[in-house]
Amino acid sequence: MPKHVGFIALCLTMIVSGCSASNHVQEKRTAIKLQQIPDQQRLQDAFKSSEGTMVIIDAHSEKRIIYNDSLASEQRPPCSTFKIWNSLIGLELSLVTSADESFYLWDGKKRFLDAWNKDLTFKEAFQSSCVPAFQQLATKIGPERMQEWLNKIHYGNRDISSGIDVFWLPEKDRKTILISPIEQALQVKKLINGKLPFSEKSKSVLKDVMQVKEGKNGVLYGKTGSGMNEEGVFTLGWFVGYVESGGNVFTFACLTQGENANGLRARKIVTEIFTNQGLL
Fold this sequence. Notes:
Blueprint: H1 3-36, H2 40-47, E1 51-58, E2 64-67, H3 69-72, H4 83-92, E3 102-104, E4 120-121, H5 122-127, H6 131-141, H7 143-153, H8 181-192, H9 200-210, E5 211-214, E6 219-228, E7 234-245, E8 248-257, H10 263-276
Antiparallel strand pairs: 1-2, 1-8, 3-4, 5-6, 6-7, 7-8
């Protein structure tokens, strides 16, 4: 057999084998995705007696699962989950440039969380959910630029009329911006897939500060949010973000409501669900 014929035959064999292997990997990955999204019963078990909802979306397909559909579509104040978008807008405007830069200079006023009563880097302020730090950031962004960005990314009902430094924070007689759990999860999916006008640099810094937990099977990124009633009792809890595991990405929004509902409770539910599914 001429040498060039033998070489062509070898190349064809490699191409066919490579395609077959690629198809096998894709089929395996798809099977993993379908298996790793939890069913309704597992979601219900994780919530136990808590009232709430959870939306999980495969970032690279249209597959999703929703626990408690009606609640998933109801718009609520985002509370501190809005720090995700406040941060991205601040990064785009160069009001913040890195995770470890000095971000918040404590004014000496004692607040109810000790973690807020000191100077903080951007990462520290985000992870301790320091409200006054992000109120300052929103004020620097200003109402005109904030409204422009919220219109651009189609965030919730886009209503910031209650004030530039409070519009995401629920309080009696305050008309806050509103967004539903399904909208939250879809918004993060758009961010992951590059469908929103944020730079790779901004998204990289956000990813750094959003990391919550690294497990043996994956990494969890998210932001909690908590809301109180008029008596100062927590009655609303959010955890919004995404999990990366084995080349897959799932975005999510979890909301709990009722007495003693808060962001930490929502985060615990999400962590339990993804750990049990082998994603963390």
